[in-house]
Structures are given as structure tokens and as C-alpha cells.
Amino acid sequence: MDKNNMFPIKGFKNTVLLKPLVAESDVINVHVGEYSYYSDFEDPTSFLTKNVLYNFGISGNSLYIGKFCAFANGVQFIMPDANHATSGITTYPFAVFGGKWAEALPLSDYPFKKYKDTVIGNDVWLGYDVTVMPGVSIGHGSIIGSKSVVSTDIPPFSIAVGNPAKVVKTRFNDVDQEILLRLAWWDWDVETIEQAMPILVKGDIPSLLEFAIQNGLAE
User: Strands 149-150 and 15-17: what pairing?
Assistant: First the structure.
């Protein structure tokens, strides 16, 4: 597959690779790894406007998406730029309307909550209509169930569902997770990944480790 082809499936316009989509935009705070894709029932090319919401640049926060992620229709990332100050008496954003209201207290002086960047690891699957709240990190290899709202960090290789999303199980035991994180197959060159695809899809971790050792990718 050509990593620079926005439409990776021949004759099919409902799935886009996100890295080339972002590269063709003027958005500077969304960063995507190779081969991560978004599928949409209508127009996946509107991802940066329909699915990355409230991204006005006020907060200075960024969205980082790893490699080989799969995002289903309706996945949304809420950026922190439209959050209201909550530590005072009112949450009303007077300053956004300008004039005397902005002079009374400029928007830059509002006591907004500070957020971390939003970080989606490698090989993360976000199901239909998942919402990711500001400042959340989702670990490598995790799966988030349909219509879940992710408001807290999700550890690597977790399966999480619900609103708010809760981890219901882990995909691998601690030892296997350590091996997978050490191998980091998503960082291998694509030719090696192509050789390993049958193991990655149908195999087990000992087989992947053996493959990595044989190819000088692990000891």
C-alpha cells in the first residue's frame, strides 16, 4: 500500500489515510503516523473539521495519533479550545463577544484549565462514534468500544467501553505486553511488516518474538 495515497482502497472513497490528509491541510497541531486511517459513511476527507472539534489553537494543545490506527465512522476528538473557565462564579465566556466585555477581562486572562496534549498510541482501534476528551492518552494496541466516551487515560493493550470508558479486560498478560512494547512492530520497516503480517493477524506472541529474533529485531 502506498502510504502517501489518501485513498488506499482502489475504487473506494469512504476510507482515507490520515497522514496525507493532514499534510494537504493547513492544520499544524494534528500529527498522524503512517497507515492510520479513518472510515466515514459520507465524507472522510472532512475529518479535520467534523471529527477534530473546537480546534481553534487558543490552548496551544495538539493531537498526536500513532501508526496503524483504525478509526470508525463518527470518531471525534474534543480539543480544549472551547472549554469554559469553571473556577469562578460563572462559566459564561463574556470575552468571546468582544467590546467592553472583552475589555473587562481579556480572554487571555481567563482561568482556563490546562490540559495535556491528546495522544493516541500505535495500533489503536476506536469503534463507531467514540468520543475522546481533551488531554487523554490511549495506549498502544488498545480497543475502545462503540459510542464510548474516553475521559481518562487508557493503558496499553486494554479493551475499554462505556461512558465514561472503563477498562473491562486486557488483551495480553503483563509479560506479553512487555514483549510487544519492546518489539514495537509498528516501527519496523514496511517490508518486514509485510513478511510478518500472517503472524500479526493470526499468530501468537512467541511466534512474533521468534520472527523478530530471526530478522535481527530482538535478542
Answer: unpaired
User: In the annotation, is 84 catalytic?
Assistant: yes
Q: Is the model's pLDDT at 58 over the cut of 90?
A: no
Q: Whole-angstrom Cα distance, residue 144 to residue 77?
A: 13
Instruction: Give the Cα separation of 36 and 45 in Å (integer).
Output: 14
Spell out the residues 6+ positions from residue 218 whose beta carbon is closer than 8 angstroms to its own: 182, 183, 209, 212
Amino acid of residue 154: I
pTM: 0.94
Task: Give the chain's count of helices (H) and strands (E).
Answer: 6, 15
What are the φ and ψ backbone dihedral angles of 144, each rounded to 5 degrees?
A: -115, 125
Task: Indicate whether 1 pLDDT > 90.
Answer: no
Work out the average pLDDT over 96-124.
95
Please name every residue paired with 169 in a beta bridge, in sequence order, or none if there are none: 159
Of 3, 13, 84, 182, the active-site residue reads: 84
Question: Rounded to an integer, what distance in angstroms lies between the CA atom of residue 154 and that of residue 165?
Answer: 9
